[in-house]
Amino acid sequence: MATKLIVGLGNPGEQYAKTRHNAGFMVLDQLVKTLNLNFNENNFSGTFCKTTINQQPVFFAKPLTYMNLSGDFVRSFCDFYKIWSQHILVVHDELAFQIGHYRLKARGSGGGHNGMQNIINRMGTEKIKRLRIGINNQTRFDIAKYVLNNFLPEEQIKLDTVIANATIACYEFINCESFDLLMNKFNNN
Questions:
Q1: Does 40 belong to an annotated binding site?
Q2: What DSSP character marks residue 152?
Q3: Average pLDDT, consecutive stretches of 10 residues, N- to C-terminus, the chain (189 residues)
Q4: Which of 60, 79, 87, 172 is deepest in the core (most CB within 10 A)?
Q5: Catalytic center residues
Q6: Cβ-contact 155, 137 below 8 angstroms
C-alpha cells in the first residue's frame, strides 16, 4: 500500500498556538491525541509521527517553517519518503468559510491561502486534497492581523465541534478508496 500523509498547517510557537491560522495544527493535534500517538520525530523543518491503521501506513505532520513556507517541508518530506501527491491531505484554515463550517476539496488553487499555494507550487500540482476549516466571523478585516488573532471564547464551541468532525474525516481518509465518496459524506453535513 502507498503511504499516506496528513499535514496540518499552522505557525510554530506558543504565541500562535490558539490563532485562527493554526486551525490545521489544532486538527492534527486532536487526531494524534485520539490515536494515542505523539509527534516524536523532527526533520525537514517539521515534526511528525508514523503509524499503520488497518494495514495502511500513514504519517501525520506539522511543518515548522511558518505558514507561507509549508511547501518546503511537504516537498522534502514526500521526496524522502516517496509519497505521491495523490496520497496527501492538507488541513488548513479557510477565510471563505464561517466558523463552524469545513469542507473537503480534491484539487484546485490555493484560493488565497499562501501556505496551501506554497505546497502547490513546490509539489508542482493542484491535485492535492485538502480539508478547509472555516475561521471567518466578519465581513471586513485586515486579513494578516485577523488570521493571527486567537479565536473568541464564544467561537470555541463551534470550533471544538468542527475539530472533532475534521478529526473523523482525516481518520476516514486514511483507508478511503474514493475521495469523492468521502467528500459526499462530510461535505453534506
A1: no
A2: P
A3: 96 95 98 97 96 97 96 98 98 95 97 96 98 86 86 93 98 95 88
A4: 60
A5: 21
A6: yes
